[in-house]
């Protein structure tokens, strides 16, 4: 690998609060080391279409507190193809980009891995960015803390109505394949039940549970449902149980994309800044095909190959704990 002179940085997949803090850290750390930095716009699509933008220190001024991503993002179908990656490689070469930092989730890092398997002379380093927090190899992904706090604020508000009207609310949160947001927000809000993709067939248990709660005169019931639950989203689950619980007034609330937006929390800003800083340091240390992550509070370098093969699931002891606490 020759000496790195110019690096590219991009955000890919779903936006997450804190991505801007990571971009800022990458740009400023690279400039500190005398490197040039290019922002690649709209994720991998920008690589394929040559949408590059020189980044200076001032290009990342006043973005630390902003949600979304100033570089824009996309889920690129074209980058999944050999032809797409070939075009991307040609454009990186033309732009004289020697290395790339990718900020994104599972799919984005899989794309990085595929590219690095085909083209050896442009190293990639990844930064985990996904509100779902479901990336293997890191305890934490950028955006998760902010999303969790957004959910908690919303659920607390809904609880007021649920208690005032004796209602049963099904609240759907994001998480296509994993229940981290559901499990952690459910614990934080004292949800009566938490439906996650990792636990199958929860609807039948809910019926028993609600019956007991009804006898104990619970004034409200909040059921958090991860959108990727095996028995459907909040709407479908509410439909399945509503006839069994005529005594409750059932309502559904889908929190949707409010979970992805907003100013990042302090934790997201600090974590994203660390990830950005260490991503550039890793490239300068001749590392490639690794994602920067946290394990037990320490920075780790996780090979792309591991991230892609392994699945990260919600901490099993929490499932039991949540059940005990929700009585
Ligand atoms: O991966 C992040 C995520 O927010 C998921 O939780 C959700 O299923 C998905 O993105 C939604 O994607 P889109 O914004 O494309 O609808």
Description:
By secondary structure, the protein is an alpha/beta fold. It has helices at 19-32, 44-49, 82-94, 106-118, 144-165, 180-189, 203-215, 234-241, 266-284, 304-309, 316-325; strands spanning 6-11, 36-40, 52-55, 99-104, 124-128, 167-173, 193-195, 221-226, 249-254, 290-295, 298-303. The strands form two sheets. It has a seven-stranded mixed beta sheet with strand order 3-2-1-4-5-10-11, sandwiched between helices. Strands 7-8-6-9 form a four-stranded parallel beta sheet, sandwiched between helices. β7 (193-195), α7 and β8 form a beta-alpha-beta unit. α1 packs parallel to α9 and α5 (144-165) crosses α6 (180-189). The model has no long low-confidence stretch (mean pLDDT 95). Bound molecules: 6-O-phosphono-beta-D-fructofuranose.
- The helix count comes to 11
Q: In the CATH hierarchy, what is the architecture of the largest domain at level 2?
A: 3-Layer(aba) Sandwich
- Major sheet characteristics: 7 strands, mixed
Q: How far apart lie the N and C ends?
A: 59 Å
Strand numbers in spatial order across the main sheet: 3-2-1-4-5-10-11
**Parts with pLDDT < 50 across at least 5 consecutive residues:** none
Structural class, from secondary structure content?
Answer: alpha/beta
Q: Specify the helix fraction band.
A: 40-55%
| Tally of domains | 2
Strand count:
11
Shape: elongated
Report Rg.
Answer: 22 Å
CATH topology of the largest domain: Rossmann fold
The CATH class name of the largest domain reads Alpha Beta
Mean pLDDT: 95
Portion in beta strands: 15-25%
């Amino acid at each position: 690998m020759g000496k790195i002179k110019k690096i590219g940085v991009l955000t890919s997949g779903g936006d997450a609060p804190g991505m801007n803090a990571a971009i800022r850290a990458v740009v400023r750390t690279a400039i500190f080391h005398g490197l040039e930095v290019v922002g690649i716009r709209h994720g991998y699509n920008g690589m394929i279409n040559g949408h590059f933008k020189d980044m200076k220190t001032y290009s990342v001024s006043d973005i630390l507190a902003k949600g979304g991503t100033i570089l824009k993002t996309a889920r690129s179908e074209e980058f999944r193809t050999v032809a797409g990656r070939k075009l991307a490689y040609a454009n990186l070469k033309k732009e004289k980009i020697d290395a790339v930092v990718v900020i994104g989730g599972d799919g984005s890092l899989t794309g990085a891995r595929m590219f690095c398997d085909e083209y050896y002379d442009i190293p990639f380093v990844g930064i985990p960015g996904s509100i779902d927090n479901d990336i293997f190899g890191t305890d934490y992904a950028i955006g998760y803390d902010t999303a969790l706090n957004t959910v908690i604020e919303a659920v607390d508000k809904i609880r007021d109505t649920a208690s005032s009207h004796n209602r049963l609310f099904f609240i759907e949160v994001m998480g296509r394949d994993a229940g981290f947001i559901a499990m952690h927000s459910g614990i934080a809000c004292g949800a009566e039940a938490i439906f996650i993709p990792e636990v199958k067939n929860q609807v039948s248990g809910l019926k028993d549970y609600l019956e007991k709660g009804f006898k104990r005169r619970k004034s409200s019931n909040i059921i958090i449902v991860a959108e990727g639950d095996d028995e459907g989203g909040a709407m479908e689950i509410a439909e399945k149980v509503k006839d069994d619980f005529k005594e409750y007034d059932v309502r559904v609330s889908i929190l949707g994309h409010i979970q992805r937006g907003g100013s990042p929390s302090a934790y997201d800003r600090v974590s994203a800044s660390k990830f950005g800083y260490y991503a550039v340091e890793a490239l300068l240390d001749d590392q490639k095909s690794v994602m920067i992550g946290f394990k037990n509070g320490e920075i780790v370098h996780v090979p792309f190959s591991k991230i892609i093969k392994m699945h990260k699931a919600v901490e099993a002891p929490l499932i039991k704990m949540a059940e005990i606490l929700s009585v």
